[in-house]
């Protein structure tokens, strides 16, 4: 049997990770400035993470959600304290797409409505409702067309208000910093007006924090910069440092009913152990403070390279935009300089999503390599 060929692959086979580095099967070590799509939050193979997962799997790796799981309660308490969202409730699942799927489903349950408003260049997942709310026709199959989704320009409050006035919108779903779409972010006025309009028209605001959350911006959530109160917050990537775990934080105004949401694997014992370890390390090592410090240093270093047209994003969710497409640049960085970076739907943008443990010397290494590759192109 062969693998279904849906991924264009670099000819690199990582076999080991250590903090901000991965080593391949040939013994070559790479500086990881992409973290597997912002998944690696506390560094590859962090010892506390390895210990927590190893100890848990030696006792009990899995049982269903039909029984008591104190680790879920512990995770919810730690997450509430770390995020400042103590009054929300937690539903655990397995992936970002599943988190957003449940968020949209819950919004429809709560409001009795079906239409969703999303924004151009949005990426919310590849499952049924989430892919319909993703602005990419190439990954939408005909079966997804059953969903009622309206795409608006990010920042267009006038059109948003007109759409909400129609009274049929269950949810507005928004990334407070777009990930795959290219690190675009609207103004405080837009986000705060969106929050107000949703509340005025009986529509739920879903904050998709799957990539921009979990400390990546220097705040626990990217929306924390603004005066907004999302009804549902979706979380995933950095939550498990590579272990498949995700969830939604649900405002207390939404009432749970048995059977309305469910999952087999979500919130299993191993997933909870991984997620608890991540929160512990985020706090113990003051990684959000590190994000802010390293981000400031990164921005200063970027000023020295005139080919960079602008730097987009916040914290350690950053994009370097050039006047040229960056595909070849990424290849040279990975094969010649042994540095992982990322792309986006904006072909001129180089995405930087490193582990939150990154240090200034790693940033120095990157910019020296970047300058050399550009100069000798």
From TrEMBL:
Q: Which InterPro entries match?
A: Aminotrans_3, Aminotrans_3_PPA_site, Class-III_PLP-dep_AT, PyrdxlP-dep_Trfase, PyrdxlP-dep_Trfase_major, PyrdxlP-dep_Trfase_small
Keywords in alphabetical order, please. Answer: Aminotransferase, Pyridoxal phosphate, Transferase
| Pfam families the UniProt entry points to | Aminotran_3
Cofactor list:
pyridoxal 5'-phosphate
The domain of life is Bacteria
Q: Which Gene3D superfamilies match?
A: Aspartate Aminotransferase, domain 1, Type I PLP-dependent aspartate aminotransferase-like (Major domain)
Could you state a single Gene Ontology molecular function term? Answer: pyridoxal phosphate binding
As for family, the record states: Belongs to the class-III pyridoxal-phosphate-dependent aminotransferase family.
Query: Which PANTHER family does this entry report, sorted A to Z?
Result: ACETYLORNITHINE AMINOTRANSFERASE, MITOCHONDRIAL, AMINOTRANSFERASE CLASS III
What's the protein here called? Acetylornithine aminotransferase
Species: Sinomicrobium oceani
């Amino acid at each position: 049997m062969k693998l279904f060929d849906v991924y264009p692959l670099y000819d690199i086979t990582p076999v080991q990770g250590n903090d901000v580095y991965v080593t391949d099967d040939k013994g070559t070590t790479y500086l990881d400035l992409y973290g597997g799509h912002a998944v690696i939050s506390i560094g590859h193979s962090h010892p506390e993470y390895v210990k927590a997962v190893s100890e848990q799997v030696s006792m009990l790796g899995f049982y269903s959600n039909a029984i008591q799981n104190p680790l879920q309660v512990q995770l919810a308490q730690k997450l509430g304290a770390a995020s400042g969202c103590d009054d929300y409730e937690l539903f655990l699942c397995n992936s970002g797409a599943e988190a957003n799927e449940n968020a949209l489903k819950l919004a429809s349950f709560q409001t009795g409505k079906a239409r969703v408003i999303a924004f151009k260049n949005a990426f919310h997942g590849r499952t049924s409702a989430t892919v319909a709310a993703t602005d990419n026709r190439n990954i939408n199959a005909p079966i997804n067309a059953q969903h009622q989704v309206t795409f608006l320009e990010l920042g267009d409050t006038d059109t948003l208000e007109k759409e909400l006035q129609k009274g049929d919108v269950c949810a507005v779903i928004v990334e407070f910093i777009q990930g795959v779409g290219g690190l675009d972010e609207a103004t405080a006025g837009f986000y705060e007006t969106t929050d107000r309009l949703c509340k005025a028209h009986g529509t739920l605001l879903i904050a998709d924090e799957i990539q921009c959350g979990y400390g990546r911006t220097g705040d626990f959530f990217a929306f924390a910069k603004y005066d907004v109160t999302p009804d549902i917050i979706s979380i995933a990537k950095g939550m498990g440092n590579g272990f498949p775990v995700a969830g939604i934080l649900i405002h207390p105004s939404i009432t749970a009913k048995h059977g309305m949401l469910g999952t087999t694997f979500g919130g299993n014992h191993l997933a909870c152990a991984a997620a608890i370890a991540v929160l512990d390390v985020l706090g113990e090592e003051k990684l959000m403070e590190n994000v802010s410090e390293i981000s400031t240093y990164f921005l200063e270093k970027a000023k020295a390279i005139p080919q960079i047209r602008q730097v987009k994003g916040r914290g350690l969710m950053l994009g370097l935009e050039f006047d040229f497409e960056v595909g070849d640049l990424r290849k040279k960085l990975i094969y010649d300089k042994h540095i992982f970076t990322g792309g986006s739907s904006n072909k001129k943008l180089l995405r930087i999503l490193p582990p939150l443990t990154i240090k200034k010397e790693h940033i120095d290494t990157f910019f020296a390599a970047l300058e050399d590759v550009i100069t000798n192109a």
